[in-house]
Amino acid sequence: MDPNVQLMIYVIPLLIGFLMVLPIGRTIFASFSGSIPTMGSERGRVFIGLIITCLAGMAVSFQTLWISSKISEGGNFCASNSILSCDDVIGNPEYNTDPFFGIPWGGIGAVVFSILLYLTYSSSKEPNADWASSYLKYGTYLTFAGFFVIAMLVYYEFEMGKICQYCTTAHFANIAAFIGFFRLMRLNESKEWNTY
Amino acid sequence: MKHTYDDEADVRTTALIRVMALFFVGIMIIAATTSPIATGTKEGERAPALEGKFYNGSGWSDFNLESYWDSGWAEGDISGQWLVIEFMDTDCPYCVQSAEDMGTNANDFGGNNPQWDGAVVNFIASATELDIGGHDSSRNEVVAFRNKIADSGEECASSDCGSRPGAAHNFPYVDDLDQDNMKKWKVSGTPSYYLIQPDGIIAWSSAAHQGEDLRDAILTLVPRESA
User: Fold this and answer.
1) Which of residues 42-71 of B touch A (CB under 8 A)?
2) How far does the CA of residue A25 sit from the closest CA of chain B (Å)?
3) Does A77 touch chain B (CB under 8 A)?
4) pLDDT tens-place string over residues A121-177
5) Domain that holds residue A28
6) At A103, phi and psi to the nearest 5?
7) How many domains does chain A have?
């Protein structure tokens, strides 16, 4: 399968999750509230959107880690002469691991999205627990910290003159997750948290 | 009254187990479908990039180590071309002494020797300038060393570069005067040699085999028709 077509497996759920965490999601997904009661509330819809976003981010990070491993074997996955060439970015040993421990960025993404998924999933199951508001804050801080890592990785891409579309999808997932966590954190502080 | 719920139950435990299970499934899929090879300069690792301009006898141009690799190469395949990289300094006395051996090896294993029935071995020298007093190199000195130009005004280890042992070399010399490649390859001293498989995996390094000769490594590791 063409790697750009395969990327849609992650992009489509991510876009759905992103739309769900936005205020506009209320209008777009209004018709689902009949069949999925959770979707009827702002809190429920954002939680579902955030879980989908974290799952998509986790999956695309694993795919990036897989590509990284395949390239190290000497194989190709999405090499291209155009600006969109994830092989050139993920396969560049100068930039493809973190500077402290040498862990591939895909592996770091998979771990971070797993943590975000845990924070979201557990909070969604018990939204009025004492720890839920702390978890939403942790999620907001973690995704905000991700912006600095994304800025650095985008700088690397700029240096190489190439864009890794799989990495960009993971970056976008972090941005969508930040919006979701931030909205839930604000909602949690308001009276609307328990409004149905 | 009988409890129908667990007082100690916490949704966080269930959520953690489920997310961890998902994470490990992802890791297991990667582990089952790939065999990653680390990039590095130890034997069995993928050779890092070697960047810079190289001189091949007709001027300096961009060097691309990747162009030497054949990802489809299989062990024992005699058609794949191997590569020897020498990290050297034109002012290092031992590098000057070993220039003759390098030239001899390049001629013997480079594909133009009818008596060699093994895979072609290409040679590259990465010329650096060590941070030692008297080691002042330049591209002109590298060219004088490679081509063995007499009376060029360039001195290699305190002698005229044209007086170094052996004949002129016909393999490329990469400009690493800024030591970028040497540091990237973690080369501690010169000369250092690496014998690399056609797929870019390091098969032998002089650092890991002190006292062992490069020629012996080629004869042992590079596949031959008669073997």
Assistant:
1) 46, 48-49, 69, 71
2) 26
3) no
4) 999 999 999 999 999 999 999 999 999 999 999 999 998 888 999 999 999 999 999
5) 3-194
6) -85, 135
7) 1
